[in-house]
Amino acid sequence: MSYINEPQNSNMNKTGAHFSAKSIYEDALKARTPSPGRDYSDLLHDTSSNKWYPELGESEEESDKESPSGSPNEFGEKDIEIRVKLLEKQVRELEIELSKSKSESNFAHAQLDIIKREKELHVSQHAKEKLNWERDLRELQERLIQERKQFNDEASDINRQLQEMQISFRTLKAKKEQQAEAFKNRIREDEERFIEVVREKDKKIEKLIQQIEELAQQPRIRAAKSEDKLKIEPKKKKPVKKILKPQPLSPSRSRGNGKQKYISEISHMIVALEKEQAELKQKVKDLEYDSGMERDRRKLKELIKRNEERLNEAIAIQEEMVKVKFLSADLDYS
């Protein structure tokens, strides 16, 4: 605030200087005023008095030039009047400067008050902001501590769960390996058993095919004999209605019972093949969940395919035997 107070101090210094010069000048006049009846010529022509106020010396010279024939008393009174007027003029100027300096001082004081108030407002605002920042900082620190504690707890829980999962994974892996080994052994045993069953079924199917071929040849021979007999026999009389009596089964009937037995065997074989087919399909479905059983799964699929082919062959044989059975039955009744 020094720049505001500088004009005031300079004006006050000027005013003090003028007032001190005026008082010194009046004191000098009183000190140098001669006693009544003394000659004033030495005082008038004394140039040393001009050192108190330089402008007064110039006025004396001008007054001497204007009124050279004036008396000493008149010259002294005029000089005093001139000096008094000059002093009054200077006093008025000093009053004007003093009023200006007062107004400037008041303005400076007002500015100073405004600046102080603004400063107080800024200080109070900064203090409030500081308090708010400190409060927010404390809240953030407390929140950070809580979140760090919560994070540490969660991290410890996750580590514990991870360890438990690793232990359970190792246990489950060992168990799965044992189950996979057991599945492999069982599949190997089932494969061997299935191969053996297929071999036995193949033998039975071949035997049944031979028997079917033999049975298929017999009706043809009988049909040829019946045709020859019809050519030789004479014309028959009109048929007479006879009462049918129960008779024992003929050899052809016994042969029909043998065919029925073969058909039932083939039916049982078809049922067994269908059952094995369903079991193999279920095993393939169980192995689909294990990625390490691809080779065994392919083997089972091949076995299922072969079993399906055998099953179709057995069904075809069954249908053929049924046809042969009905054909032989028609020939027997004829």
TrEMBL record:
Source superkingdom: Eukaryota
Give the keywords, sorted: Coiled coil
Q: Where is the composition biased (Basic and acidic residues)?
A: 224-233
Q: Does the keyword Coiled coil apply?
A: yes
**Where do the segments described as Disordered lie?**
30-79, 223-258
Q: Where is the composition biased (Basic residues)?
A: 234-244
Q: Which residues form a coiled coil?
A: 263-320
Q: What is this protein called?
A: Uncharacterized protein
Q: From which organism does this entry originate?
A: Blepharisma stoltei
